[in-house]
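Internal tracking record. Fields below are filled automatically when a chain is submitted to the structure queue. Please do not edit lines marked as system-generated. If the sequence contains nonstandard residues, flag them in the REMARKS field before resubmitting.
Queue: standard
Priority: normal
Entity type: single polypeptide chain
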Amino acid sequence: MRRMTPRLLVLSLICALGTATAGCGSKGGADKFVGSWIYAGAIDPNCQNIAAVDLTGDAVTITAPDSSHLQVDLAGYCNIAFEVNGFTASASGGQSCTFDIPSLGPQAIAITSWTLMMTGDDVLTSDFRGAILICAPTGTGTLTRQADAGG
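SYSTEM-GENERATED OUTPUT FOLLOWS
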């Protein structure tokens, strides 16, 4: 049997003690995401030269029903459940957002994947993939945390 290297032994000990949230396969860390955010980015319908839906400036509210789950309200377009694993939150399929698509009107876009990744204390990156009819909407963006009104 091979002996553990000192580095692997230390990492195993940290994971066993539960002090690390990323890289150990433990779920949790929802509290990092909770708060009010402003979105900068767009959803591109990727369909018959239809213009992108600009979401820049839209408010996003993130709450945590427990330590490993989030509820994300994107400006009233949708309220989506995410599962948190360290610094990454992922939405499961079977959920949808309704966007007002230029020349098509309000359309429910089925989410195929949506990932939020903490890239700083006050910054999240967003990667959205969806499906509607014969189109495959995509979108990337940045969410910036807003200061609490109470200071």
